[in-house]
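We give its fold:
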Amino acid sequence: MLKLEIGGGGYSSDGSEPSVQGVQGRLDCAAGYEFWLARQAVARNSAIKLYGLQWSAPSWVRDSHGALWTPADARYVVSWLRCAREIGLTISYIGGWNEHYDGAAVQRAWYVDLRKALDAAGFTSTRIVAADQSPQRRHRSGRPGYSPLITWRGVADDMAADPAFNRAVSVLGVHDTCGFPTTGYLRTYTLSLTASGVTISARINRGRVATVTNGAYREGPAGLGSLGYTPVRYASLTVR
């Protein structure tokens, strides 16, 4: 699967991606590089699935209060899909707003409006994903936590309580479900062990992650975690 940013003409995280409709009614399907990237991906793997998601949008989609979850924005997403279809790309999945969902009624209504707009424009097979949220949550202590299940359940509970929202959404989507950060498996970790009597303390990159008392450890996979996140597991761990 390849996730594509629906450019909105504003800085999102990796630069400013041009919008295909920076001015309402003026569609420019050649704007940006995402469709080029998608074509390259499909040329290398015809079975790859494409997924569109908004990080930003042009100002004209906002309502009079400046809100972005609007029917105009849903139509804007459909315009982006029309561009993809025009150049031979099939977008299998479409999300909402990147890490912005909090369950408000206007947000749930946006997904319903999007489903109607998709069907009316002939995108009946494009599936809607909700809600592209981050699994990071603050514990009562104020420390960051990692809770993808709680994030999923928040959307699922909204779907159970709102039949229209439930009919609109096809897939539950949460970010970083394999651990946080997702680049953790590429990072270099320095493990130090300190023995004091029958207790061994483990630190990774100066952060304390575990304390093991004699007799508590058994052979098997090693698990390492820090800062309240779910432990990253390794099939084996060599200490040098």
Q: What stands out?
A: Helices lie at 34-44, 71-86, 105-120, 148-161, 163-168. The chain has two domains: 2-174, 185-234. Residues 49 and 85 are 14 Å apart (CA to CA). Residues 185-234 form one domain.
